[in-house]
Specification:
The structure is a homodimer. Chain A is about 40% helix and about 15% strand. By secondary structure, chain A is an alpha/beta fold. The first copy, chain A, has 18 helices and 15 strands. In chain A, helix 6 packs parallel to helix 9. At the A-B interface, strand 4, helix 2, helix 6, helix 7 and helix 8 of A face strand 4, helix 2, helix 6, helix 7 and helix 8 of B. Strand 15 of chain A pairs antiparallel with strand 9 (about 210-215) of chain B.
Chain lengths: ~425, ~425
């Protein structure tokens, strides 16, 4: 893929992001912006910094460890989420620190924060204060329930519970299911990036920035809402269907001797293909299974018949038999296997991260930017705020034009 | 919220989208663009149209129905996903149809398609053909495994299985869990919108468009990859932990007499608050539970102790007792309850849809745009392609400048 020049650029090159975020949701948003080419400047408190620095496991000179042993052990969470970001230290509670912050904001296109709602304003670093310095700035707030709501901190499991996502997963009559991937933490940032880019587009027309405000509860609930639950209830359709969806039968997950497979054989040729793969083509003539309507009516029996076949066979054989009949089938994979799928590796949808000093004996594979551009690349600058304030000199001197004396004075004041 | 003028605009106003998408993933992407203010022109085959038109349940003169009874019954899927879109009919397999398509592309900023990979090019309507007509166009392809992969159709359940998302959810030793929300179908479009907006931003600098290519497998696997599974395995941390996460104990979902609650009491003051809410403050001095480390070491016992308390009480009482102690807690809600949370309703993160002719006795609540802008609104034009080709006249005459004769000839040729 080429845009005709030898040098491919990343699509957001030239945009500067001031990143006040901590933990997962906010840092994932700015990680996406960094991977798309924006220059992200991560601001941390001089003492403590991002809590994700304390997330176990760590990687360092002794490899992977549950407990930090050495000063230069790095949390893999931090290694992942702070990739490609430039790190500065700033105590926003000091006037000196805020003065530096506003110098950064004056140079910025975008500010992102995920403090508890209301905190940025209380610290004096919120949108109104930034707008006064730089009316072109797009200021994004990511919170549990919205920027004007004060219900306090929201964690992924709380939002999963409130959104209905947890209820809809799992078997009827069984407990709800906590989704293993932190969906609430991850989804709000994706919508935050959409909001930021839409506001940047609007800025091309208006010349001014604005406040973008995304809530974790809203983002995940909007996803849940794509199914019309009230209409489904009115139509007598269940809200939880477990491993299979009987109104589309056969559709869902089936058992093998050594694992599980997802199978979709909704339409006639697929159902016939499934029966052939099972070595029981006569099921296609069976009055219980010979048309889509009767398959749905006899779904429980059909699923039992399929499981009776599949559970005796190794997963690879079930997959092979169904593939030979062009029936959509896939193994239920362990995440470690999923992450090294050659297709996602080739597209850098998953990527390796590494400690800047030490090699790891295992591949530390993490999230990439799951978008391919024909006229641009994606990827991360070779930057990582290993220490808090790692790039103070570079940013304060080169971007803000501070001299040595000013930087020394800020240090002496404890502002950086 | 106001930008200082009386009239609020949507951020993407002025952008024109040609929408070739069908089913869920593609239409959700263009629905987001429509809600952000782009003019979306949905192109459907004159015969058949989008398969989502045939999704049960339907709404119409008889209310909600599982089976279509009247010509003007509308699938709620279609009502939801085609909101705010202008519908034209075009047979892209005819030269006349393709000629109209390229006239549309010449006026467009964005084209979105989610045909099986390779199909758009085979039909002669892919990126290279569009670029020849309009080098500024951003052409987005949404597919199962990537635009150059020919592994065929991908369905949500297949991608959930392959991505590892299904494996990580659920209890250790139990079967995997199909996530009730179609995460793979929904996530790829969100990244597609990010890719489109990033390419539009790049176009401001380069003057040219490009091909944006997002895969369902890549989007969902990148989410799964935010956890470092190989490092967790190396550190002896399990990949599936079910309703609770014992290394953060107490953290997770607990049982009440009439439902389930999510509770997070990881830190010392929260754990003390939980024990106070339980009426057993002495647990805070119990050698098994008196510090974070011992709570994690005795997580199974701690969880049993909490469940013993909570399962005897109604959910509302458990929530009230924990809230009184400022311990993060939330009921596991049914989606119907989640969708009408006043917070998400106020922010239009969920929205009502309605049949253009008939009132429904129940609130048909569906996904909104979960982003608030201080200087813009979001929302949908009052447009819906009820019939295939609903807006042929308006688009072909007003946007393309075709006269009556040309439109009549296209009809006669079966091209529209």
């Amino acid at each position: 893929m080429s845009n005709g020049s030898d040098l491919m650029h990343r699509p957001l090159e030239g945009l500067v992001v001031i990143d006040l975020t901590r933990a997962l949701a906010g840092p994932y948003a700015t990680m996406l912006l960094a991977g798309l080419g924006a220059q992200v400047i991560k601001v941390e408190e001089p003492k403590g910094g991002d809590l994700a620095r304390e997330n176990s496991p760590y990687v360092g000179r002794d490899g992977i460890q549950v407990v930090r042993r050495h000063d230069d052990d790095i949390s893999i969470s931090h290694l992942t989420r702070a990739r490609g970001k430039y790190g500065v230290s700033l105590d926003l509670k000091t006037p000196e620190g805020r003065a530096v912050y506003f110098d950064l904001v004056a140079k910025a296109d975008i500010v992102v924060e995920n403090f508890t709602a209301g905190t940025a304003d209380r610290l004096g670093v919120g949108y109104q204060a930034c707008k006064a310095v730089n009316p072109r700035v797009v200021f994004a707030s990511l919170s549990g329930f919205g920027a004007t709501d004060h219900d306090g901190k929201a964690m992924d499991v709380i939002i999963q519970a409130l959104s209905g996502a947890m209820y809809t997963s799992g078997e009827p009559g069984h407990p709800p299911v906590r989704i293993g991937v932190p969906m609430a933490d991850m989804l709000a940032p994706v919508f935050t990036v959409i909001g930021i880019l839409a506001a940047i587009e609007q800025r091309h027309k208006t010349g001014t920035g604005q406040h973008v405000d995304v809530s974790m509860l809203g983002a995940l609930t909007s996803f849940v809402a794509i199914e019309n639950w009230s209409a489904m209830a009115a139509a007598g359709m269940p809200a939880r269907t477990g491993l299979t969806v009987q109104r589309l039968s056969p559709f869902g997950v089936f058992e093998c001797a050594d694992g599980y497979v997802a199978v979709v054989a909704v339409h006639e040729p697929l159902a016939r293909g499934l029966f052939a793969a099972m070595g029981q083509p006569e099921l296609g003539e069976d009055p219980r299974f010979c048309s889509r309507d009767v398959r749905v009516a006899n779904a429980t029996e059909l699923e039992a018949t399929i499981n009776e076949w599949s559970r005796k066979l190794p997963l690879v054989e079930v997959v092979r038999a169904l593939e030979a009949q062009n029936v959509p089938v896939a193994p239920v994979r362990h995440p470690e296997d999923a992450l090294v799928d050659p297709r996602v590796v080739a597209r850098q949808e998953t990527m390796a991260v590494k400690h800047p000093l030490y090699r790891s004996s295992i591949d530390l594979r993490t999230a990439g930017i799951p978008i391919q551009f024909s006229g641009a690349t994606t990827g991360f600058d070779d930057a990582l705020p290993v220490a808090i304030g790692e790039h103070n000199e570079a940013i304060f001197r080169d971007l803000l034009g501070y001299d040595e004396d000013r930087i020394a004075a800020l240090k002496a004041a404890g502002a950086i």
